[in-house]
């Protein structure tokens, strides 16, 4: 169900005055730039969104829930392309100046106006079914690692490997359509450490020494990402006695998992004793984040999430959209993790890393 309550600020976000919070990580423009002319960075990112239009059109064409889907898919491609070309000419048009949040929102608005609610539903369902079949084996491999530090490192690498299932990237969408993706192979072929941002060793030390009471995890994609990456990590937290809140999107966007989908996934993974492969799930909650995009502005979350998150002492943002393109530099009042794979050359360039490099940013807050 869609949230009908007004959105509120995430309670563990330091106030904008304290932290100079701005959701988008990459500055598209500066105050000194001419407001009537696009900046080179704006043009670079508009072109990136333009490259994704054909893959979105193809998904929309095949949406059997929409009458006259091919014709409406073509209208989507024409309208959204025209909007992006308008912004290239006049950055202030269509609610600009543009940033990652605005460009994503305009794309979703055009799709929804034409009746497309979830053009990635079929591929999400297929990938969820595949990942559920692999889940127990992945968990058993993790459980077999006796050393706590090695086990958590393996879990983190699983999150990064799962995060490659991202159909918002035109390049990855093309690869996925041609050959698919193997979770285990991706785990083995992650780019070598040190990553472009790599606080993993510090986190491993804290993991062994520190027991968090409650963790809030903003999840990202369906399939291997949430099922083989995030859920084994959440299960490990539960096993350590940490309560876990999984925050998922209100509405569909690309192949991101939604709140209702995640509820069903977890239900399928539980046994008759409400355990997930031997671990009690009474401390696990799934909540609607209030978000409807692949990126997130932490000044706008659901009141339900705000209520449940107030006493958390660990917040994790996962995925390129939520943890890198937005919120990489967000300052929180408690310990935080920003984790994701770099899947756009433009992001790699900004960070000074490699394509498919990894970000693992851990920030500790003392005396929270």
UniProtKB/TrEMBL annotation:
Domain of life, source organism: Eukaryota
Domain Damage-control phosphatase ARMT1-like metal-binding: 51-359
InterPro entries: ARMT-1-like_metal-bd_sf, ARMT1-like_metal-bd, At2g17340, At2g17340_3_helix_bundle, Type_II_PanK
Record-level GO BP terms: coenzyme A biosynthetic process
Keywords: Hydrolase, Manganese, Metal-binding, Nickel
Gene3D superfamilies associated with the record: AF1104-like, Uncharacterised protein PF01937, DUF89, domain 3
Membrane-spanning residues: none
Any Pfam family: ARMT1-like_dom
One CC-aspect GO term: nucleus
Listed GO MF terms: ATP binding; hydrolase activity; metal ion binding; pantothenate kinase activity
Cofactor: Ni(2+); Mn(2+)
Protein name: Damage-control phosphatase ARMT1-like metal-binding domain-containing protein
Organism: Asparagus officinalis
Classification lineage: Eukaryota, Viridiplantae, Streptophyta, Embryophyta, Tracheophyta
């Amino acid at each position: 169900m869609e949230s009908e309550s007004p959105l509120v600020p995430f309670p563990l976000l330091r106030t904008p005055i304290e932290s100079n919070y701005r959701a988008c990580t990459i500055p598209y423009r500066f105050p000194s730039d001419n407001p009537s002319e696009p900046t080179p960075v704006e043009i670079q990112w508009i072109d990136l969104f333009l490259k994704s239009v054909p893959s979105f059109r193809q998904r929309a064409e095949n949406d059997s829930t929409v009458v006259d889907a091919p014709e409406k898919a073509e209208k989507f491609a024409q309208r959204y392309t025209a909007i992006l070309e308008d912004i290239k000419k006049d950055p202030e048009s269509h609610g600009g100046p543009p940033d990652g949040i605005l460009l994503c929102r305009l794309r979703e608005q055009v799709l929804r106006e034409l009746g497309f609610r979830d053009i990635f539903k079929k591929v999400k369902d297929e990938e969820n079914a595949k990942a559920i079949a692999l889940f127990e084996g992945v968990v058993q491999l993790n459980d077999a690692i006796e050393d706590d530090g090695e086990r958590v490192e393996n879990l983190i690498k699983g999150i990064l490997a799962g995060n490659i299932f991202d159909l918002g990237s035109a390049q990855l969408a093309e690869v996925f359509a041609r050959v698919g993706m193997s979770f285990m192979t991706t785990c083995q072929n992650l780019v070598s450490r040190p990553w472009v941002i790599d606080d993993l060793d510090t986190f491993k030390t804290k993991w062994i020494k520190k027991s968090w009471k409650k963790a809030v995890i903003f999840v990202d994609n369906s399939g291997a990402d949430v099922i083989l990456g995030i859920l084994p990590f959440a299960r490990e937290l539960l096993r350590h006695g940490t309560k876990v809140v999984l925050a998922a999107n209100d509405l569909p966007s690309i192949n991101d998992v939604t709140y209702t989908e995640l509820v069903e996934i977890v239900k399928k993974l539980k046994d008759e004793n409400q355990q997930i492969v031997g671990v009690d799930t009474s401390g696990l909650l799934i909540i609607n984040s209030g978000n409807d995009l692949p990126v997130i502005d932490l000044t706008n979350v659901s009141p339900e999430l705000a209520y449940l998150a107030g006493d958390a002492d660990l917040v994790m943002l996962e995925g390129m959209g939520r943890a890198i393109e937005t919120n990489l530099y967000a300052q929180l009042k408690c310990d935080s993790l920003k984790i994701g794979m770099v899947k756009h050359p433009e992001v790699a360039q900004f960070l000074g890393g490699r394509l498919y490099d990894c970000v693992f940013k851990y920030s500790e807050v003392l005396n929270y």
